[in-house]
């Protein structure tokens, strides 16, 4: 890993200008893996609940730039039951989709082979290799774009 190219920003993000397309990741390992796979900036939200405020901050800083939210897919949690006996929510997917919809971004999720136990982009890269994970990421980015008309110039 080329950690010298990873940056952790503290304080006001308005001091920083990111010149390439940012990827927002739920966790540090995912952000580091995305940076390795794409050589593009990766921003760490540190938890699913923080994806929306981080995404909103970056949207304000650059209203016209496409932003990709690399969500976790906690699909195994659907097999778990909460205290009321209901299936639990796939929090990673839910929060990434909410953040993407709120700022006109695109959420992209890892695709695991049947029986795969991973939940994030780092898991996918560890199990299937970086080139496979990078191709899945690129394929996900090529899907339908979010309507960004209320945030700038509209879909790209």
Features:
8% strand, Dna Topoisomerase Vi A Subunit, Chain: A, domain 2, 5 helices, single chain, disordered C terminus, disordered N terminus, 35% helix, alpha/beta, 4 strands, 156 residues, four-stranded parallel beta sheet
Q: What would you report as the Rg, rounded to the nearest angstrom?
A: 16 Å
Compute the number of helices. 5
Structural class assignment: alpha/beta
**CATH architecture name:** 3-Layer(aba) Sandwich
Mean pLDDT: 78
Number of domains: 1
- The total strand number stands at 4
CATH-defined fold name? Dna Topoisomerase Vi A Subunit, Chain: A, domain 2
The secondary-structure element order is: EHEHEHEHH
Helix content: 25-40%
Identify the overall geometry: globular
Give the termini distance in whole angstroms: 31 Å
Low-pLDDT runs of 5+ residues are: 1-16, 143-156
**Which class in CATH terms?**
Alpha Beta
């Amino acid at each position: 890993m080329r950690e010298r190219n990873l940056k952790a920003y503290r304080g006001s993000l308005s001091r920083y200008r990111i010149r390439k397309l940012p990827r927002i990741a739920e966790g540090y390992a995912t952000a580091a893996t995305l940076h390795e796979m794409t050589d593009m900036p990766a921003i760490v939200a540190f938890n699913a609940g923080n994806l929306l405020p981080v995404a909103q901050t970056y949207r304000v800083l650059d209203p016209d730039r496409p932003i990709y939210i690399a969500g976790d897919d906690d699909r195994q949690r659907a097999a778990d039951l909460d205290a009321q006996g209901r299936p639990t929510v796939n929090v990673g997917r839910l929060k990434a989709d909410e953040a993407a919809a709120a700022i006109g971004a695109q959420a992209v999720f890892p695709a695991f082979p049947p029986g795969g136990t991973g939940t994030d982009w780092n898991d996918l890269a560890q199990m299937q290799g970086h080139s496979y994970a990078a191709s899945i990421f690129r394929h996900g980015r090529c899907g339908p774009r979010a309507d960004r008309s209320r945030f700038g110039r509209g879909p790209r």
